[in-house]
Amino acid sequence: MAKSIAQDSLAARLRSNELYAARPLTGSSMESRFSERVVRGLLFICAALSILTTVGIVLILFVETIGFFERVSLWEFLTVTEWTPLFNNAKYGVLPLVAGTMWVAVIAIAVAIPIGLSAAIYLSMYAPRGVRNVIKPALEILAGIPTVVLGYFALTFISPEFVQRVFSDTRLFSALAAGITVGILIIPLISSLSEDALQAVPSGLRDGAYALGATKLEVSTRVMVPAAFSGIAASIILALSRAIGETMIVVLVAGGTPNWSADPRESMQAMTAYIVQISSGDVPRGGVEYQTLFAVGLTLFLITLALNVASYFIVKRFREVYE
Amino acid sequence: MAVQASPLKGSGNLQRRKAVGTIARGAFFLATMFGLVILAILLIDIISDGYTWVDRDFFTALPSRFPERAGIKVALMGTLWVMGLTALITFPVGVGASIYLQEFAPRNRITAIIETNIANLAGVPSIVYGLLGLGVFVEIMRMGRSVIAGSLTLSLLVLPIVIIASQEALKAVPDSIRQGGLALGATRLQVVRSHVLPSAMPGILTGTILALSRAIGETAPLIVVGAVAFLTFTPEGLDSQFSVMPIMIYNWTARPQEDFHSLAAGGIIVLLAVLLAMNMTAILLRNHFQNKQIQ
User: Does A54 sit within 8 Å of B100, measured CB to CB?
Assistant: First the structure.
């Protein structure tokens, strides 16, 4: 007992550098302590750069957005349902862009939740280990495909060969086709994170349910999924946030005109697509067009930030704690 | 036999429950295969559309209004420039940050803030990094629509991923290695340099390559920073204008003509081949070092 306390305190002193201080300082070790502090400072700067990045993002978005709101009222931005900044009689209501983004994201989530969650249940409850070790990395390949490639696939295959045939009167460029493709993109995110959450449920719960005579399906849906709920919910929110920030698929297949409409078979412009469209051209700094980029970007940033924070708190608040 | 004798047998309910279970199992399996089937269709679709276009001219030709004369030389060189610079910036900074956080940082509030912040940055949409690059690098720092502005933007985008991966690699180094070094009188920096880093290096390199393989496919932030598709010269320096492969692919895909779509498929084949090569390198590297450690 005494020995282990002695070891602990030795380890603690090693960690806090006390032992170096206790050593007689020769010239060379003073020098090395000095260079140690310099290197340590440099390493700290590397780590602190991440804070600088966040500050940079927030500042640049806010500064340009404030400039924007000196020309356009916040009320107009949030309530008008027309977004026509390039017209002579320009209207700056962001709602059509937000609606475009939301249509795509909601369709994506509607596709990805049943498929992704089913895959997670299959991988954690049913699949033999060998099968799982092959399928899981293969699904992650799908998540690693560049989104511009999925955009190409959406435009040349998913939209004309699938969406337009199944849903009549769908345009080639539609929120529906974009939503389905983004849904495919986020399936691996949901299946992978939800499977991790299911794996983390202690086996006692599962065995107890089997012992009561439940079938595998009942164990999965009535015991395992509720027990892993916080992790599953967090994975869904992260996937939603990813869908909202997704750019190249919606640029290529959702369409290029803002459209305040309730029909996802029509083409709609999403927030990210607007940013790409405007910044592809030459936009002089200080002009209202330049500022709209940042106003829309800030809206996007705040929505995804809120979702990321929400998922963090869901995991923290609703996690079932097991021994 | 024993099951048949049990009182449960009499209720048709159990049979029904088992039947439902079997159907559900099939449905779960189909859902799992769905993603893989889509992946297979995607690869077949792209390869069959584009493979005839990938020949030697494709790699040496400049962009053109005529699909049969267009190639990816400019975009390929641009990608090499931008990715090379991004690697040069990301690797030292990312590894430095992870060493600080894992080996030196005191467990205090500032450290906690930095770590939460890094996790949050990993969730920021890539196009927002593009706006950061446009506002700060292109406009305020007056770098213009240049290779360096693009590389800095991509570096900030992948830094959180590199830091998180490197931290995992450092965490996996057993504490006894650190204690052994310290016991011999080495300073903490010496321990990190001569003991911890060499053991963690395979993990760090793997993580960095995987992070860069994400950057190489990024399109949106570079469009915002000002990469253009139609350039007739390859980059000559940090301040050159540039194009990259994903932007060339985007530009070709967005055109209505069928031939440009096939050209885009050709570009995608090259991009995916580069990605595959990077992932293979990461895997081989990891296996190589793992075998070495066992011996």
Answer: no
